[in-house]
Amino acid sequence: MARAGLTADRLTQAAAELADEVGFENVTVSALARHFGVKDASLYSHIRNAHDLRVRLAVLALAELADQVSSAVAGRSGKDALVAFANAYRTYAREHPGRYTATQMALDPDTAATSAASKHAEMTRAILRGYDLWEPDQTDAVRLLHSTFHGYVSLERVGAFHSHPRGVEASWLRALDALDSLLRAWPVGR
């Protein structure tokens, strides 16, 4: 019999909080069961297995990130939208490190298509239309932006930039200036 009060949504939210505390890679069914003071088996009425739990966590994190980015870019265009998107992305990664890691999880195509992952791509593409970028350049630019944002926040999280006297924030702002310049002067497609 399922323990009263446990639901898939409640377990997913608790897993998200746990991920931010101990890291996404340490979110297990056993760790979650300990959090609720129940046996592992009690959770299987609500989730199929550890992979299902991690997928649910990734979907939740993608939705949270999409909401944060969407709010930040609303009513903006061009460089203002690019900077708002980037800053919201970076803020989410800083405030929710475990959840941010979950957003990088490879999802099966059906889950990805019905999750906020597709919303992220569409928001990025909307920003790029402001730079007059269309396919196939748009796909290349989406990949460039994701790689830059993810690379920067990932290196920042592990302290890779702190050994240099130039401030991390100053470099971030210059990187955004450079991306804006590149997008405005995008080279002719190949």
Automatic annotation (TrEMBL):
The entry's DNA-binding region: 28-47
Superkingdom: Bacteria
PROSITE patterns in the cross-refs: HTH_TETR_2
Domain HTH tetR-type stretches: 5-65
SUPFAM superfamilies reported in the protein's UniProt record: Homeodomain-like (SSF46689), Tetracyclin repressor-like, C-terminal domain (SSF48498)
Pfam families according to UniProt: TetR_C_33, TetR_N
InterPro entries, per database record: Homeodomain-like_sf, HTH_TetR, MT1864/Rv1816-like_C, Tet_transcr_reg_TetR-rel_C_sf
Entry's Gene Ontology molecular function annotations: DNA binding
Keywords of this entry: DNA-binding, Transcription, Transcription regulation
Gene3D superfamilies, sorted: Homeodomain-like, Tetracycline Repressor, domain 2
Name of the protein in its database record: TetR/AcrR family transcriptional regulator
